[in-house]
Amino acid sequence: MSDAPLSLGLTIDVERSTFSPAFSVAGTVIIFAFFTAAPWILPASWVSVLSNFFILAIMATMWNLLAGYAGMVSIGQQGFVGLGAYATLYFAIKGMSPFVAIPFAIITCAILAYPITYLLFRLRGGYFAVATWVVADSAMLVILSIALLGGGTGKYLPGLSNLSPSQLDHDTYLATWFVAFVVVAATYFILRSRLGLVLSSMRDNETAARSSGAKVTSTRRLIYVIAAAGCGAAGAVLAISQPFVQPGNAFSINWAAEMLFVSMIGGLGTIEGPIIGCVIFFVLQQWLQNLGAWYLIIFGSLAVVIALWLPKGIWGAIRERTHFELLPVGYRVKERTAAAPPLPTSDESA
Fold this sequence. Notes:
two-stranded antiparallel ribbon; two-stranded antiparallel sheet; globular; disordered N terminus
């Protein structure tokens, strides 16, 4: 008798996505084309809302990269938003176009963030979070002392007077959209790389990550610098969209609260979560803006409900139940039943 197994076998498939990459590419092209053409096909009021949406999406994506993936909860990222805005103002005062100044503002924030990590990384948990807030307030105090940048009263961003109002709105929107697209795309590719694997291991078990040879401290430092640069980019386009740069607005703690809120209700540790959170935030804001202080109460109640019943956020709950991802960055193990081997014939069994 043959000893061929009669039981069914299992085959393990490892995959990133449940659909073809061609659909992802096609969807990306369609979305990019639509939002690029938005100033010419949508009402001006919608374009203005989209600009603000993209600014918050940039901040939330960077905060989620920092807290949701690297496990560093910061309540001081508004400091880099303000530094990005004032770096843009400084370069504009020196004669550079504000739009050209955007990448220089990003680089400036990255350079400033690097030495700050040597102070912050001595702390953990709540101490780290409070320290980031102290750094943000210290940065604002430094800016307040610089007369060239307008001190406490702020200063109008030069270099935009040669543009008509409609052209300025179009250019500002396109700059904001392009920066948001680059930030989300860069985050996606970072998380699909080896760096993304290190981040996941750090978040799940830092001790195990260190014991397996992961360079936790240098990875943490790199992610902090990237998040600072991204928030600086948000500050740069914020300065252009609201040309009067003022410390109370650029360094507002409201930015940190909004980053945290949209990331939490959308889903920490996912790329889609902060974007979905921004959609919910702006829909509710437009819908409830005439209710005065009540809309803040509704926002707070929503945050409590999400934290209690959907701790992984809205998109996290959807992903957990459907195993569907728009922007997959990890791998999924899927079992499928292999075909049973053919039964032996009478000749073979003789």
